[in-house]
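Q: Protein A?
A:
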Amino acid sequence: MKIPEFNKKKSIYYIIIIILLIYIFFFDNSSFFRKFLIKKQLSELKADINLLEQENLRLKEENDKLQNDAKTWETKARELGMQKEGEEIFLFKSDEDIKPD
């Protein structure tokens, strides 16, 4: 069966349009798929920024406490193994720290 010439031209136009649409949706720099990926990345970065801002606020509060509260400062110093002048420190090993020979 022979396809009329008119239908061949019409089908070629449809194929060209479909290829063009596929290119626009998936491969173009401003494609919908690329915009979707960029929006997803943007929301992830905003979440990261939010977490970092919360951590920054916590660290600022801790810094203020260390600068203004002597008791907090002393507690942190002792956590780092510092001692007052004239004090002796005793370190105890737990069972987990002792390795059998």
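Q: Protein B?
A:
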Amino acid sequence: MTEAHASQKNTKGRILLIEDDYANRKLIADYLEHCHYTVLGLKDGLQLFQNLEIFRPELILLDIKLPEIDGYTLIQQIGQHQDWRHLPIVVVSGYAFQADQRRALALGARRYLVKPVKIDELQQVVEEELRRTREQGTA
């Protein structure tokens, strides 16, 4: 099931948020929408590519511990897909070990933030990654 949180008019960017915890998903989505982003929240990655095609996000915020398919697998699948491998992925996870961070970054994530994340830090990372992607001409 998907949750569309805002219209796509007058938006600073489209963000796909994959987070299984409802409260975390709602908090992050609401804050980013307040900051004028359009957010699509998913509780899992089962319909990832269908949602990528429909929503066409400019950035993915991704939890690692998800039901059915974990975030590592999703990063790997996105990286192998011609149309989506350029998409910046920012991991937002409770997994705080360096090994977890190295694994996600080695698979293709651009950033790794450990929960609980400061919401203003998250917004800054989102802005930086969207700006970086646009400057590279891949958005």
